[in-house]
Amino acid sequence: MNYKKRIVCLANSRKMSGRCVAGLEIDGEDFGEWIRPVSSRSTQEISLEERRFEDGSELDLLDIVDVPMLKPTPHAYQSENHLIDADYYWTKVGTFSNDRVQELCEEVESLWTNGHNSYDGINDRITEDEAHRTIDSSLVLIRPDNITILVQQGYKKREVRAQFEHRSEVYRMRVTDPDFEREVLRQPDG
Q1: Does 144 reside within a domain?
Q2: 165-173 — which CB contacts under 8 Å span 24+ positions?
Q3: Domain-ending residue, one of 102, 132, 161
Q4: b/e 56-86 (16+ beta carbons within 10 angstroms → b)
Q5: Residue 183 backbone phi and psi in degrees, to 5
Q6: What does the pLDDT look like over 62-81, one tens digit per residue?
Q7: Contacts of 67 (CB under 8 A, 6+ apart)
Q8: Euclidean distance between CA atoms 28 and 17, whole angstroms
Q9: What pTM value is reported for the model?
Q10: In a domain, 27, yes or no
Q11: What is the pLDDT of residues 121-132, one digit of tens each?
Q12: Helix/strand/coil for 158
């Protein structure tokens, strides 16, 4: 272990056979840059074993955790990546108050270059070339307007999408938080 990063967990979403975890660095009472812990696997997801605490409990949203790191590993526009030291447990040091989450929201003009849509999405894609040219960070926490959660038949399976507005631009994106997705998929389509 070369260093630790203390973060408040703001993302713990599905990725391959593990999770994509990310959060804001905490330094005392101040919040710093986005941190995305990544593994040494080619797809960089964090396995259950890697995100489990020594007592066997698992990482939750809003957990404040110390993550042992080996080195920064920025990748193109994902400047937030840091390689974890998988030989050490993550340590939960507290829980961030849900009432304070809006303090962490950022004011950004645009999420990215809009106009690229997936099969059922709206403005949910960006070309790799545009990402390299226009984005230097891949994470942001916003307070969206007019959010609607949709349960619908996707290309192959039922899926959950969030449709919202940001600065009068409409977005419709897949929801990849497994706990929220599990709860919402119990509902009928609509």
Answers
A1: yes
A2: 166/110, 166/111, 166/142, 167/109, 167/110, 169/110, 169/111, 169/114, 169/123, 170/122, 170/123, 171/111, 171/122, 171/123, 171/124, 171/144, 172/120, 172/121, 172/122, 172/123, 172/124, 173/121, 173/124
A3: 102
A4: eeebebbbbbbbbbeeebeeebbbbbbbbbe
A5: -65, -45
A6: 999 999 999 999 988 889 99
A7: 4, 5, 6, 7, 35, 37, 82, 84, 90
A8: 34
A9: 0.92
A10: yes
A11: 999 898 888 888
A12: strand
Per-residue tokens: 141: 């926490």
Residue identified by tokens 């696997």 is: 41
Which CATH number do you get for residue 19?
2.40.50
Q: Which of 127, 119, 131, 137 is nearest to 174 (CA)?
A: 119
Dist. CA 47–CA 62, nearest whole Å: 19
Which tokens go with 143? 């307070």
Give the range of the structural domain holding residue 54, as residue numbers without chain letter.
3-102
Name residue 131's amino acid. A
CB 9 within 8 A of CB 21: yes
